[in-house]
Design goal:
2 copies of one chain form a homodimer. With 216 residues, chain A is mainly α. Chain A starts with 8 loop residues before the first helix and ends in a 7-residue tail after the last helix. Chains A and B meet through helix 10 and helix 11 of A and helix 10 and helix 11 of B. Chain A binds a DNA duplex (30 and 30 nucleotides) through helix 1 and helix 4.
Amino acid sequence: MPIGKTTNPTVARAVVRSGTAQSRRALLEAVGVVLAAEGLEGLSLRKVAAQAGLSHAAPGVLFGGRAAMLTEYAAEGFRALGRRLDQAERQAPDGVAALAAVGSAYVLFAVAEPLRFQVMFRTDTLLPRDPDYLAACREGFLPLQRAIERGMDEGWIAVGEIEDVTLAAWSLVHGLAMLWFSKHLAGRVSPDPKRLAARITQLFAGSIAHRAPATK
Amino acid sequence: MPIGKTTNPTVARAVVRSGTAQSRRALLEAVGVVLAAEGLEGLSLRKVAAQAGLSHAAPGVLFGGRAAMLTEYAAEGFRALGRRLDQAERQAPDGVAALAAVGSAYVLFAVAEPLRFQVMFRTDTLLPRDPDYLAACREGFLPLQRAIERGMDEGWIAVGEIEDVTLAAWSLVHGLAMLWFSKHLAGRVSPDPKRLAARITQLFAGSIAHRAPATK
DNA sequence: CCAAGGGTCGTGACAGTGTCAACCGTGCCC
DNA sequence: GGGCACGGTTGACACTGTCACGACCCTTGG
């Protein structure tokens, strides 16, 4: 008897998340396809459903609405981002390099997949309270926290400024990515995002690490 | 006769900016009202038109479409932002304070009017090539450039790094504002945006200004 | 003084969107 | 077999942005 593919009966009922895993996966992949083909504004549940070979109301049934589906899509993006940052952080020889590498990887991830990145942070079209989404976010930012800790171990970050340095680093690369999307930088800066991200993150990390003792 | 006859579409399109200034002004003000009442997702041309006391298609006629109207609204926002930054920059005693003050004012403007700020940078729903919009952007960022120039005159910014420092400063405050909106900072940092912005911008400006000579 | 015309805006219609109630088919268990 | 819960479709609804058409007003020419 082919009972092997039976789904967990009670859990599926308890959680709001229903639907077959295959259909949900197909829809999530279709989101990326439609996003790449039609752009951010051209994204619609109906196109996604058609791309996935399902009926037009399938996203609503399987996820519970547009926001819920995009939230799941965004959570997957945060997990992918976390893997990239983790890889960058581990390869860095010291704290300064780690901070710059994580920041650079952040920007390059955003530039490489701008649509996904923008969906990830468009919290007005998402469900920011979703526990899965929140967990993915927290997991994604662990590499940055590790890089900060390395700076603390190396002595160029004081315990009292951990929060500020972390937030400043995150803001820096997040803002750089956002400005890159917004095209406000077109013609204003060098067009190579890789070199640009490296310069900016090294400027920041280097300035923080090599401060003169009397910073007011 | 089903054949539409000699209507000249080019003549009607000759002047993009048509309509009375009053109606356009009323619509732009209505954008702010609807935005405040319904949020970013609740914004629609029909609600704006109703709020302004006009017909549902008035925005399309008077501006040429949703994107054009929002672009004009965004341009007004950039002009207001420029005034705030200019004021902050002029009151600062030296370059470091100017850079921090401009950055702090940037964040506070964004926090004070989050919806307008988000519309200003949502370039996928705007017309980023609009000359009026571009001029307003450029004008809005003059104070930041002046602050950087003060730092250069004071000797803590080299000529070769003007571009990088400018972009880093802008990215920092822009990212901080964006992260604030995205609610990813909720519970993570101090809830007072004024104090937070001051700390972050002073950390950045102070680190850049008081670097040890051997950076890297 | 009146008719014509161009600009300003309302009206109606259309395709497309997200969401929901109602509806089937299919496998499961008593 | 007879429910029956699940996975998904169908159909409908309100709402959106956009466009063609028509009504009104102010100017202007004869």
